[in-house]
Amino acid sequence: MILEPGILALILLSLITSGTILYALRHIVPILYAWDLKSGSEGQLQLERRTYLLSTLLTWAFVAELTSLLLLVYTAENLHERFTGAMCAAGVFNLNAFGYPALLLKLGNFLLAGCWLVLNRADNSARDYPLIRGKYLFLLVLTVPLLAEGVVLGLYLLNLQPDVITSCCGSLFGSRAVGLGSELAVWPMRPLGLVLLLAYVLNLGSGSFVLRKGRGSYLFALSGLLVLFLGISAILSFVAPYFYELPSHHCPFCLLKADYGYVGYLLCGGLLVGATAAAAVGVLQPFATRPSLRQIIPALQRRAVWLGLTLFTLCFLVATLRIITTDFTLFG
């Protein structure tokens, strides 16, 4: 293990999140089975106080979970100079078998934790806590990937060895590499760009329909997740080479460097947060007919739609502007 502030902070945040989840598990089962807001018993009053405490603790724990993704990527980028063969964060994540699984779990849990926070916000905004069982059942689903992330991340960080020689961009995202990253990197530009544009138009249209008519939430959520996947694929396939002005350089992590204006944080972060906002719109929809939520959920959905559309559009504009303003081209 390497004693770095970023690594120690990641371990601490992971312990806090996992500990909070385990503490919550001790108390949510009685809430799921015995919650009755119409009752004025001492037991119900204790449950109400307990759920208020759990909601506050879990909110902060999930905020820490969201923040830790940025910290993980930033720390990996800063550590690359310590390892032979690592030119960026790609090589640091490749130092042992747990690096990329930890990153993928972080990405998935970012989406899930973001949706839980929105669901919790809706529940706390209503006078009768109508989503109390729903959000804690969702928490039970979240428990497995969150605890798995804590274990895998711990194994990754604790097994970082400075004397290990690692491989980096060319061997991970090059045309001769083996793996998902390299497969996405060789997708042809024109078909992928066209499909991505259609997904974005679908997301824009369904989002506009949600804003005007209050319908189309599921389509907006699914198209948002599709934009995330296709957007990341496009970054690997042709957006990154346009920033590097090198047809063979597909690494998304080098975009995090100051040489490229840290644009990788904007592109990848914008796509991820936008997709999380889109997914949250779909997660809220089944509860939109609850009497106490008829005004709350549409308002939250509209905010999430605006956030998702704004971030997706910003990412598209930044990438498109680079492609049309540089002298470099991927077409002979």
Structural class comes to mainly alpha
User: Tally the helices: what do you get?
Assistant: 11
Order of helices and strands: HHHHHHHHHHH
How much strand content do the residues show?
under 5%
The rounded distance between the terminal residues' Cα atoms is 47 Å
Overall structural domain count: 2
Q: Largest sheet, if any?
A: none
Query: What is the radius of gyration computed over CA atoms, rounded to a whole number of angstroms?
Result: 22 Å
| Uncertain residue ranges | none
In round numbers, the mean pLDDT is 88
**Number of E-state strands:** 0
The general outline is flat
Give the proportion of residues in helices. over 70%
Write the layout of secondary structure elements.
Blueprint: H1 5-34, H2 42-79, H3 89-93, H4 99-125, H5 132-158, H6 169-173, H7 180-185, H8 189-213, H9 217-244, H10 263-284, H11 296-325
Helix pairs in contact: 1-2, 1-5, 2-4, 4-5, 4-10, 8-9, 8-11, 9-10, 9-11, 10-11
